[in-house]
Each structure stands twice: as structure tokens, then as C-alpha cells.
Design brief:
Lipocalin, 189 residues, single chain, eight-stranded antiparallel barrel, alpha+beta
């Protein structure tokens, strides 16, 4: 009788272990990540020069089970068409030595269960940029395509909201309003 009871307990422990592993696997299947998201920004005034840059070394993570989203952007990874603009960007505006990265951490407010079709969502969160944390809300287009979580977003940031001063001498070249576009294809982790 004791031996049978011990075998039953062992079988139950194995069943519970398998169920826990299955549940853990299901939770893990809800997490997506990339280190190659793209952030593009444009400062387009009616000036002589358009200031724009692209960064393809952006880390992003999304956890669909908790609705969380996070991005980390290395400021020195932005590439400009004109090297002098890149130098001024890093030294005079975003002060990359002092503030090497920007982050966004937020939550999807209306995440559906089925992402097999494209959905327009909202992410509420905190942008930490140039030493300033600001609550922002961004629209996000999200869909799972061939096992990847594909997302895009476009929004506007104001330099003045993040303590970035634009000297009058270049105010005709650099607008306070910066148009930001984000593209990401995240894989399951």
C-alpha cells in the first residue's frame, strides 16, 4: 500500500511538473524581442537643410501576457547624411556623453488576444530622454506575421519638452517639433 502511494505521488509530481512547464512555455511564448528595431527622426522646417537620422540598433521587448512594451535607444547609433550634423547632435543637443540612451517603457491599453490581423493600438508610457522623464501616449500598429511581432509607430516629440535648447542661430534649420517613426520586427524568446 505504501509503495503504491509513493508511485502515485511520484506520478502526480511529474504531471504537475509537466503542466507547470507547459504553462511557463505558454508565458514565454508571449514575449518578443529585437535588437534591430529602427528609429528614424526628421526635423523638417522650411529651412535650407533637412535634419534627419536613422538608428538601426534599437532594443525592443514586448510581453503580450502583461501588455508591456519597452525600447532602449543608444543615442550615438543615430546616423546622419552629414557628419557635422551627427557631431552637433551628439555634442550640442542630446549630449550623448551625459545621456547615452533614451528609453520608453509603457503598456498597451487596448491589446487584443488575436494579432493575426493588423490592429491600431495605443501605448501609454514614460519616455526618458535627455535626463527628462515625460508621460507620452503613442499610436502603434501591431500584427504577428510569420511568427514575428511586427510593429510601427509615428509620433511627434518636442525638443523643449526634454530640455533640449535650440540656439537662435540654427533655429531656421532645426525645428522644436521632431517627427519620429519606429519600425520593429520582434521574434519570440
Amino acid at each position: 500500500m505504501g509503495r503504491t502511494r509513493g508511485i502515485k505521488q511520484l506520478v502526480m509530481k511529474k504531471i504537475i511538473f509537466i503542466l507547470l512547464m507547459f504553462s511557463f512555455g505558454q508565458l514565454m511564448a508571449q514575449r518578443y524581442m529585437t535588437r534591430n528595431a529602427e528609429v528614424y527622426f526628421l526635423s523638417d522646417t522650411d529651412a535650407l537643410e533637412v535634419v534627419e537620422a536613422t538608428n538601426n540598433q534599437v532594443g525592443a521587448a514586448v510581453d503580450l501576457s502583461s501588455n508591456n512594451i519597452a525600447f532602449q535607444i543608444q543615442m550615438r547609433a543615430f546616423k546622419f547624411k552629414i557628419a557635422l550634423m551627427e557631431e552637433h547632435f551628439n555634442e550640442n543637443y542630446v549630449e550623448s556623453e551625459k545621456y547615452p540612451k533614451a528609453t520608453f517603457k509603457g503598456t498597451f491599453t487596448n491589446l487584443p488576444k488575436d494579432l493575426s490581423k493588423q490592429h491600431e493600438l495605443v501605448a501609454d508610457g514614460v519616455m526618458d530622454f535627455h535626463g527628462v522623464q515625460k508621460d507620452i501616449e503613442v499610436s502603434v500598429s501591431l500584427q504577428i506575421i510569420d511568427g514575428e511581432l511586427v510593429g510601427t509607430s509615428s509620433f511627434i516629440l518636442l525638443c523643449s519638452d526634454f530640455g533640449i535648447k535650440i540656439p537662435k542661430i540654427v533655429s531656421d534649420k532645426l525645428a522644436n517639433e521632431i517627427h519620429v517613426s519606429v519600425k520593429a520586427a520582434l521574434t519570440k524568446i
